[in-house]
Design goal:
This protein is an all-beta fold. It has one domain. The protein has no helices and 15 strands. The radius of gyration is 18 Å and the shape is globular. The N terminus is likely disordered.
Length: 207
Amino acid sequence: MSVVPKKPRVGVVDVMGMNDYVFALYNDGAIQYWDVNKSFGILEGIVQPMDHSPSWFNTLEYYEEGWTKAYLVQSGKNLLLVVRYTDQAMNSDKKDVDYDLYYETLGFEVYKINPKDTSCEIIDDLGDLALFVGGNYSMCVTVGPKSLERNCIYFTDDQNEDWTLVTEFGGHDMGIYDIKCDEFRPFYEGIDTRSSYCPPIWFVPQF
């Protein structure tokens, strides 16, 4: 990891605020951040993998088996980068499904990013945490007894680019990914998640 010279960038794929900073993730894998307490939000730097590039770098749009998406998530004082790998094919390649276009999530990678010392490390155990990613703001929550599943990623179908290209619209690519076991489980199997105009989103009640 290295900090590269400050310069304008294009192709933002996710934005989040954490502590006194705003972070922007770009489709080339760079993470740019600003200090909001300084005049006009001064650009502090750009974190970009170079010497030790993890597998997600330069693959945030395409990779050899399909597509990737990435999400920024706050976990306490830590900044996490969650990368989602998706398989995509036309129906002629997936004859067992009735969609014009077929896609499904194959797996995830989670990285802890430290902009200050430009370090990046893969996370293979979230402990008693669960991550939520999808079409709206990504979240990290502590798992209590008899509630969520620990060390898992809950994900919704946010393949917005192909939402209206499938026969019954989007909404089918959702589930729970167990990081330790590298397994997928459903959390809802109803057909009412399909929509012609809006992906399913996470809702966090405030009491």
